[in-house]
Amino acid sequence: YIRLFFHCFLLIAEIFCCGILLSMDWSREVPDFLYLLEAVLLAYAVFRYIRTLHRMKQFLSRESIKEGIDNLPDGVCFFDENGTVRLINRKMLSLGSMLFGKEIQTIDELHAALLKPPAAVERLDEEISLYRFPDGTVRRFTERTITDVDGSPVTEVVAADVTKLYAKQTEMNLENNRLMDVNRKIKHILDNMEEIVRDEEILSMKMRVHDDIGYSILSAKKVLLKHEDIAVIHENAVLWENAVDLLYRANTMPSLPD
Asked: How far apart are CA 79 and CA 145, in angstroms?
């Protein structure tokens, strides 16, 4: 700002001098180099003023840095070597209010609140400092030590918004558990494939025996109702004997591995 004020003053002075020079009586003899010198000085003053304005647009002031940090979606704060807050954004102030009901003043207060959060704040993972806040967001707290321009240590604490990542991770964990369940069932089927096939074959055989017995019963009923002769009755009795014999042998046969 001091440089801008100086160049602004220089530009005004040159404009004033030009005004005086142009208002002089043209009948007097004014050296040509004086006009040329004044034009060069005025051009230089305009150039320096415009350049200073352009550099100021690219310059980060304290206010612009604070405004930029306040607009971040993540909570950010910096503590000096004594653990006192030196810079904190609005989001971290809001998180501090949810953690212990007031603004964060020292790093020890923050550590104590994260170690024993209130009931409204759920600690999801202590190892990676993962917390769910009452506003529904999931935050991961990270801490690192940096140095300022003077070489003094500064502790940076960031509360990153990982709500979407946590939701995706939870969804993936549920899907993985479902797939593991399916894999266990498939492995059980493969390990017992021979037994399952054997049981299905035995069941099929018993169903055929059942059908044969049913057919024999219907045939016997028909023979008895029609009062057939002894030869026909004996023929149907043979069917009964075969079916009963097959069923008996199937039930008394020992279990073999083959």
From this structure: 9
The SS3 assignment for 56 reads helix
Tokens of 172: 């993936």
Give the Cα separation of 12 and 97 in Å (integer). 52
First to last CA, the chain: 97
Residues in the chain, how many?
Answer: 258
- Positive or negative, the CA dihedral 94, 98, 103, 105 is negative
On whether the pTM is more than 0.85, the answer is no
Residues linked to residue 145 through DSSP beta bridges, in sequence order = 155
- The full 3-state SS of 153-219, as one line of letters, equals EEEEEEEEECHHHHHHHHHHHHHHHHHHHHHHHHHHHHHCHHHHHHHHHHHHHHHHHHHHHHHHHHH
Residue 85 DSSP code: E
pLDDT at 126: 87
CA distance 73 to 208: 73
